[in-house]
Structures are given as C-alpha cells and as structure tokens.
Design goal:
heterodimer; A: Rossmann fold; 2 domains; 15 helices; 16% strand; B: mainly alpha; 62% helix; 0% strand; globular; binds iron/sulfur cluster
C-alpha cells in the first residue's frame, strides 16, 4: 500500500500537490461542483426512447454468446456442442485476472462454438457459444449471500468475479478487479456514475427510474467490497424523474453516508476522469487510476448487477438496452439477454423506418457502426442507435486544417488535437508522444466541431495503436538484445570454461607426462641399475 | 430472418455543425453592414473594388489550384479567396486604379497562399500581404482617400468612379486636388509631427466624436459584425479583446499624462482599420495562434505594434504590419503557450 501511495505521489508531481492533499480534496466529492475543460452541450434526444415502459422481449430462436465481452483476454469455453445448459450455468471461465466469466443466458442446448463477428469496432471474428433455447428458461441452482454485510470483502469480490460482472458503462473492466484494486489503494469514496451523457442513450436513466433500490443496494455492497466509506451518486440535472425516484428509495433504504448529486449535462461528463473533475475539482494524474486518489467509479447498471449477483445469485446475463433513433419505428428500452441478435430487438421495436441507414452500437459520439444486424448484444451494448441518412456525417469531404483551434477549445483532456493530427500524419511519433496522445479519451468532441471535417478520432486511434506497437517492438527489440547479450555471455562463458578445461587437461597431461617422464626416468634408472647390476653380475 | 446490412463509418456519427465554407460565409455576412456604411460615406467605389479584387482572387485561386492539381470546385467553394479579396478591398482607397487589386491579389493568392501550400498552410495573412505590397510600392496611390459624406463638396458618382478606377484618371471636372483628402489618422500624424496640439488638430471637420467622421460609423458597423461572429462562435474572443485592450491600456496613460500630444484612446480605436483588424483580420485562424493564451498574446502584439507605428512609424496606420509581424511570431508563441494536459 505504501508503494502505491509512493507511486501516486510520483505522478502527482505536475499538479503541485502531495498525495494527502489530493485525497483530502477528493474526500469531499460532490460538495461543490467544478468544471472540466471543453466539452459540448449536445441535444439529448433521450425522450423518444423513454416514453414506453421497459419490456423483456420473447426468447429469440438462437443466442450467440461471445466468449470475449470484457477488457482482458477471451474466456475459455467449458461446454461443448450437444451439452444441455441451464440458465446461469458457466459457459466460459476466465483464464486471466482481468478477464471475466461468461454464463448461459437461458436454458437450452449448446449448438456449437463457432467463430462469429464479435460486436467490436474492429469487426474481427471470435469464438461464440451458440445456444438454442428450450423455452423453459430454467435457472440453475442459485447461491445467495443475504448477510453480505458481515462478510469479508474478499468473499464479496469473489462472488462478483464468479458472476461475471463487468463495468456496464462501456469499459467492461471486471468489477471485482476494480473493487480489489480499490481496497488495496485504500479508497474512501465510491462514485456511482449515473451521468449518461451521450445523446440518445437512456438505458441507465430508465434503470434508475425503475430500480433505484437495486442500485442503492448494489452500491452499498460495492462500497463494502472496495472498502470505501462514502457513496456519491451522480446524475444529470435534467433527470428530474430519476432524482425523485432516488430520493424516495434512499429514504426507504436507510442507507447511510450516501449522497445524491446533480451535475450539469455536458458531454463527456460521464467519462470517469471528467466526472471526478466535476465532483472534486481534482484531476486524476495521467497514468494513475482514480483509486490512487482515493476514488472508485462504478456505473449504475454495474451496481444493479452486483446487487443481483450477491442478493439473488444471478450472474450477468441480461442488461437494459436502448433501441432508438429516427431509423426505429418505436424507440424504447428493452431488458435483453446477452447474446440476443440485434435484429430480434429491432423487431420488438416495430422494425426499421424507411430512412434507416446507419446502425451504431453505443451513442452517436463514441459508438461504432455495425455492418449487419445479426450481431449479438454483449455486456457492453448499452444502445442500438439507428440513424437516418440526413443525420449521419456525409462521406468525409475533408479540407485541410485551418488551425481554428475549435478542437482544442472543446477537448476535455486539454490536448491540442490539431497538433496531434499533424504529427501523426507526418509520422512524428516522438512529438505525438510528447504531446500526450495517450491522454486522449476518444470522446470525439474535437472531431465533431472540426469545420474541416477531419476524422480526428480515427487518426488518434491509429496513432495510439502505432505508438503501442512501437513500444511493443521496442520491448521485443530490447528483449532480443538482452537475449543476444545473454547468449553471447553464455557462449563466452562456455568458451572460457572450455579453455580452462583444456588448460587443466593440458596441465594434467603435462603433469602426467612429467610423472610419466619421472616414472620413465625412474624405470630407466632402475633398469639401468638393473642392467648395470646384471652387467656387473655378469662381469662378476 | 435475413440480415440487413448497413454502411459504416468512424465515430462520431453526427455531422459537423460548421464547415470551412460555412465559417467563411459567416465572415462575409458579418462584413455586410460595414461595407454598406463604407459605400454610404465614401461612395460606390468600395463595391467596385470588392468585385474587382474578388474576380482577380478567384482567377488566381483557380489557376493555382489547377497548377497544383487540386479539385477546383471543392476549394473554390470554400470562400477563403473571397474573404481575402473583400478584406483587402476594404483597406484600399475607393478610387484606387484596377491594377492595384491585380498586383495585391497576385501576391496574396499566388505567393502568400499557394506557394506556401494553400489553404491552412500559409504563414502570413494573404490579404495583409497583398495590402502591404501595394502600400509600400505605390504610396501615393494608396493615400488618395476621399472625404466622407458630409464634408465632401463633390463626390464622384458610379460612372465617374468606374472611369477613375479603370483609366486611372479622374473624369473632368473632378481633380485629385479637389476631391482627395488625407485620412484622419494622416491628419493627426502630420499635425503632431508639425508640432501642433491634438485638441487643435481635432477641430478639423474630418474628425468625428471619437475617430474620423464617417470612419467611426463604419467602425461601429464592423464592430456589430464582429460581435455577430463572436456570438456564432466563428471567431474567439481572445484576439479582438487583446487588440483593443492593449491599445486602450497603452494609449490611456499617454493621453492622461500628455493630452496635448496624444489623442483620446477611443480615437485610436475608432479610426483607421483597428476594429476591422481586431475582429476580421487578426482573427484569421490559419496565420494566427491556436491556443487561448497564445491568441491573447497575438492580439496584444498586434495592438502594440499598431500603436507604435501610428505614433513613431512611417505610416499613419499599422495594423497590417502588426498582423504580419505577429504572424511571424505565431509559431513561437504557440510553442510556449501549450495548455497543460489533463492530469499532468
Ligand atoms: S478543429 Fe479542425 S480545422 Fe480547426 S484546428 Fe482543429 S483540426 Fe484544425
Ligand atoms: S477525442 Fe481526444 S483529442 Fe479529441 S476532444 Fe476527445 S480527448 Fe480531446
């Protein structure tokens, strides 16, 4: 723990503050609101999907459950074709610490494990478990932990890990990992992120309206698991219904040390680092985690999933998904099983309108375009947005950068996107690194305002990949050099040993030959003597 | 169920609220009231000059695009050459001969813009390069200003204006001696240099309440246009504020200590091309600074240099020189005014 504090202290160098000062400031999270740099006031467009109640669509004919739905590596399948599974059975186990388990969303038969397009911007294929539901939707045996309050935080973390809960705000980082990390770093405040700042997305808002109690219970469990004292629930100031729902639920729950904070809706305020800045006025030092300044952030849907995992024993197999946009006839929120093909959800929402031209997973600012509606919903899919021709960026008619500086004005990371773009285009990699390309959170603000319509975020993704690759190459080269040098040393050592051995042997040989010589001489002498004697004798 | 396929593209998926052409168009709209005021006070010459300069600018732009193998429609449609032409035309005397525009646009578009790499790559403000070239080369022509409406005894009509511009000589019975008059800044400068007191100089009918008669009204309309651009977020506030602020801050003590030799600060602001320069010329993004602090420094530099030239230099107004000199300093300023990155 001391080591972590020391690490944080190193990184706080630029902020002119020491570690205790930083945490003292973050301790009062939410008491006064602050600003983050730049950002955009976007039209919310959330109402269209909030007018209909959330429904559970009928079971689809087949579920496609990818084994890679989280930050770490893919899970390893523990079922095979023909296996019968119950709802909640484990389909894949995590092989690495940062990966997560995958569970069966319903009961049925495993059809096989196939490579299918993963719901991922790269469009790569990956292994998916295909399940044909038996229609009974029968749960496997469930194990609940009703007296979690008296339990060891590690036990809670383990339960959260076993149930495959990951951050549902988009980062899909395993929640148990984050909680354990928080405990190690001695965090004091748990921030529950209900600031859903991207336009169109309303799944968190609907969840907060309908299940504030679950969120509060889950938050308390998470607080216990990560060892924090306080909970700050942050919601946007335009969410009036949510505020009322929370206030009632908070009163009913009797939870202590929980505060509800309304923050102005400016995109990308839901970003972890921006939210922390608004609540505490403090920046998370670059290269550090919020835990290093005493904070842990979790999304509201994650908190609800934790409550389900601990109190009901339910693994993460379903989530709220907003299906919306002008390309959808009846926009609404659905409670969808992981693995449901997108097309099945669209059918539940009245189908497409004529003008539907682009399908986006996520919001219009950071979401990625889907090429086909057969891809499944995964843990990260918060929204299916179908846009129409006139809403979408036209095929880029890119102009040269006119250095207007709009991009820098709106950048929440306080970068100079125009400079980064120039550097990446001209392969000035060390400059791009010095200008902190890696601090870009890919929020898209710069790209949106750029009058020259330069696809800045695309360039930044490419640039980051390139830098990462270079670092890897460098590592590989370093490793190769180290290996080469080690080999040289080993060879040298072997040669040396050989030389020594030869020397020894030579010495031994020469010793031996000396001895032999001595022996020979002695023998000679003796024989001389003998012959002398015989001679003498014969003479005698 | 058959799969439905969609077109893809990188995020963000929303179209930009503003395009380059949109920015430039807004600048042109914002200049309209000032242009109208100019035409009201100094006659139709300005309109002819705008048309002339625009025609030359677009001609050179098209030729250069063709030479450089760039798509004509895309870049001609960005209106940047038009903005250069109009800003230049607003700075020259209304009856200047046609070849003034030709030479200025040659330098502005061909040299200052395209030889540096075209839109987005020019180091210097093209309009000001063109203006300074003709100002230095043809000082006599560039100082033949007309008196504003109200004190002009005769003002040339459209036909006489056309004759003057295209033949270079005034049609009878007009003569330069009869119609041309020094600008207020000129009058002030020669007056001070001749050892006269500012209040004494200012009684000349060419002065108005703050600046020159007529000039101050034109400046008001430019100011209105500039505020519109600020409101539309086409320009940022740092540059105009710094230009005007630095001029005020520097000229106020001078005026307070020595009112006989220094004009009222507001006179500085409302005469010459200061307002036009502060809102429309020094705000050119390409040749200016990009960071907020950099823009403050840039604007302050323009203001200081303008004042210094007005006071001690060889020209009555100095905004063009101020802008060009600061253009040179811009990359350096940008280097030293980088914002602190989040979390560092
Ligand atoms: S917004 Fe676009 S045009 Fe303006 S400085 Fe940034 S990259 Fe250049
Ligand atoms: S995408 Fe990156 S560079 Fe652009 S505004 Fe967001 S953080 Fe800044």
């Amino acid at each position: 723990m001391a080591a972590i504090k020391a690490r944080a202290q190193d990184r706080t160098a630029g902020t002119g503050m020491t570690y205790p000062e930083l945490t003292r400031q973050t301790r009062n999270a939410g008491e006064h609101l602050h600003h983050f740099h730049g950002g955009l006031r976007l039209r919310h467009n959330k109402k269209i999907s909030c007018t209909r109640p959330v429904e559970r669509p009928p079971l689809p004919e087949c579920l496609v459950v990818p084994l890679q739905q989280h930050a770490g590596g893919p899970a390893e399948a523990v079922v095979k074709a023909g296996d019968a599974v119950l709802k909640g059975d484990v389909l894949g186990i995590n092989v690495e610490q940062r990966s997560a388990r995958i569970h069966a969303p319903t009961s049925g038969t495993v059809q096989g494990i196939e490579n299918r397009p993963m719901a991922h911007p790269s469009g790569l294929v990956g292994p998916c478990v295909i399940i044909s539901p038996d229609g009974r939707d029968q749960w496997s045996s469930l194990d609940t932990l009703p007296d979690w309050k008296s339990m060891d935080p590690q036990t809670l973390s383990d339960r959260i890990r076993e149930t495959g809960v990951v951050g549902l705000g988009g980062a899909v980082f395993p929640t148990a990992e984050k909680a354990s990390g928080g405990r190690v770093a001695n965090v004091h405040t748990l921030i529950i992120n209900g600031a859903e700042c991207e336009p169109y997305i309303s799944c968190d808002e609907m969840l907060m309206r309908e299940h504030p109690d679950r969120i509060i219970r889950g938050s308390c469990i998470l607080r216990h698991a990560c060892g924090a004292e306080k909970i700050v629930i942050a919601i946007e100031d335009q969410m009036g219904a949510v505020q009322r729902a929370f206030e009632t639920a908070l009163e009913a729950s009797g939870a202590e040390n929980v505060s509800l904070v309304k923050i102005p809706s400016i995109y990308p305020e839901g970003g972890e680092r921006q939210l922390i800045q608004v609540l505490t006025g403090q920046e998370v030092p670059l290269g550090s985690l919020p835990a290093d300044i005493g904070l842990v952030c979790q999304n509201v849907a994650t908190a609800a999933a934790v409550a389900d995992a601990v109190l009901e024993g339910h693994p993460l197999i379903e989530r709220y998904v907003t299906v919306t946009g002008e390309g959808i006839r009846e926009p609404r929120n659905l409670l969808a099983l992981i693995g449901t093909p997108v097309a099945h959800l669209v059918t539940q929402c009245g189908g497409y309108t004529e003008a539907a031209t682009r399908m986006v997973v996520g919001g219009p600012m950071m979401g990625y375009a889907l090429a086909s509606d057969q891809e499944p919903i995964v843990k990260a899919s918060n929204c299916i947005l179908v846009m129409t021709e006139d809403q979408v960026t036209p095929p880029q008619d890119e102009m040269p950068c006119i250095r207007c500086g709009e991009c820098a004005r709106v950048c929440p990371a306080q970068l100079l996107p125009q400079e980064l773009h120039r550097e990446i285009r001209n392969n000035l990699w060390s400059e791009a690194e010095a200008d902190r390309l890696h601090a870009c959170i890919e929020c898209g603000c710069c790209d949106f305002v750029c009058p020259s319509q330069i696809p800045l975020v695309d360039w930044f993704r490419y640039g980051k990949d390139e830098l990462r690759q270079q670092a890897l190459d460098q590592q590989a080269a370093d490793l190769a050099r180290v290996r080469f040098e080690a080999r040289e040393r080993r060879l040298e050592r072997i040669k040396q040993q050989k030389r020594e051995r030869i020397k020894l042997r030579k010495q031994a040989l020469s010793n031996r030959s000396e001895q032999q010589k001595k022996v020979a001489a002695a023998v000679e002498r003796a024989s001389n003597r003998k012959s002398g004697m015989t001679e003498q004798g014969s003479e005698e | 169920m058959s799969a439905r396929r969609f077109s893809t593209g990188p995020a963000p998926h929303l179209p930009a609220p503003l395009t380059v052409a949109g920015v430039m168009r807004q600048v042109l709209y914002a200049l309209l009231p000032g242009i109208a005021a100019h035409a009201w006070f100094f006659g139709p010459g300005i309109l002819v000059q705008i048309l002339l300069a625009s025609a030359f600018a677009l001609g050179f732009e098209a030729a250069m695009l063709k030479l450089r193998g760039k798509p004509l429609a895309k870049f001609l449609g960005d209106y940047s050459a038009l903005v250069t032409a109009v800003l230049f035309a607003l700075c020259i005397p209304p009856l200047a001969p046609w070849w003034i525009s030709l030479i200025a646009m040659l330098f502005a578009i061909v040299l200052a813009k395209h030889l540096y790499g075209g839109l987005g790559h020019n180091v210097f403000n093209p309009a000001m390069v063109g203006y300074v070239v003709v100002l230095i080369s043809f000082p006599a022509v560039m100082t033949q200003w007309l008196p504003p409406r109200g004190i002009a005894e005769v003002s040339p009509g459209l036909q006489q204006t056309l004759v003057a511009i295209f033949s270079g000589t005034l049609p009878a019975p007009l003569s330069w001696d009869a119609i041309s008059q020094a600008t207020p800044l000129d009058t002030l400068k020669t007056g001070i240099e001749a050892g006269r007191m500012v209040p004494e100089i200012r009684v000349a009918p060419i002065f108005g309440d703050f600046g020159g008669l007529g000039w101050e009204w034109i400046a008001n309309w430019y100011l209105l246009g500039g505020l519109y651009l600020l409101y539309r977020r086409v320009i940022s506030w740092q540059v105009p504020l710094a230009v005007i602020g630095s001029v005020l801050v520097l000229s106020l003590p001078a005026y307070l200590f020595d009112p006989a030799n220094n004009p009222v600060p507001l006179q500085h602001i409302f005469s010459g091309a200061l307002i036009l320069g502060a809102f429309f010329i020094a705000t050119d993004p390409v040749s200016g600074c990009t960071s907020a602090r950099g823009r403050l420094l840039f604007g302050a530099g323009v203001g200081v240099i303008t004042l210094v030239i007005r006071r001690w230099g060889g020209y009555p107004d100095g905004i063009a020189f101020g802008v060009l000199l600061m253009n040179m300093a811009a990359p350096l300023i940008d280097r030293y005014t980088r914002p602190r990155v989040y979390g560092t």
